[in-house]
TrEMBL record:
It comes from the Bacteria. It comes from Lawsonella clevelandensis. The keyword ATP-binding does not apply. This is DUF306 domain-containing protein. Coiled coil: none annotated. Keywords: Signal. The lineage of its organism: Bacteria, Bacillati, Actinomycetota, Actinomycetes, Mycobacteriales. Residues 1-32 form the signal peptide.
Length: 159
């Protein structure tokens, strides 16, 4: 076996490391390791992606909107931490209209307001954003507890 002095291997090793680093940067691998900015969810009209509609707006600690039938309004807080951001509502008040449709949506909003929620924002091609609200601590796993909103109104007749 032929032995090479360490000095001989330095240049090829440095070149290989530089190639790996530049590839990681150009493919975005390195950016996945950097801290991601906190998604902006305030000051946006979020429209619930369901056949019944519904919407929320979060601004300066106040929430307002509709659960597809009744108006909702109240307070919220956002707690930011390395483990994930948490959105908590309360106290919340609603109007009491008679609604013959949309009970499932109304129940989903009631559940949303009664628990701490983790959240994620995804930007789609074309700029549309989706806000997913899920039971805090579940790491955003899609379930019946997940509500997805869009920054685009998919139910203009409901407003």
């Amino acid at each position: 076996m032929k032995r090479f002095p360490i000095r001989t291997l330095r240049a090829p090793l440095a070149g290989a490391l530089a190639l790996i680093a530049s590839t990681a940067l150009s493919t975005g691998i390195a950016s996945a390791c950097l801290p991601q900015p906190t998604p902006i969810i305030e000051g946006i009209n979020w429209h619930y992606l369901s056949p019944d509609g519904g919407h929320l707006k979060l601004e300066n600690g106040k929430v307002s909107g509709s659960d597809s039938c009744n108006l909702v309004f109240g307070n919220y807080t956002i707690t930011r931490s390395p483990a994930g951001n948490v959105l908590t509502f309360g106290p919340i008040a609603t109007t009491s209209r008679y609604c013959s449709q949309g009970q499932a949506t109304q129940q989903a909003f009631t559940a949303l307001f009664s628990r701490p929620n983790g959240y994620k924002v995804v930007t789609l091609p074309g700029g549309e954003q989706h806000l997913s609200l899920y039971l805090a601590g579940t790491k955003g796993v899609l379930s019946t507890n997940t509500m997805v909103f869009s920054n685009r109104n998919t139910h203009p007749e409901k407003h």
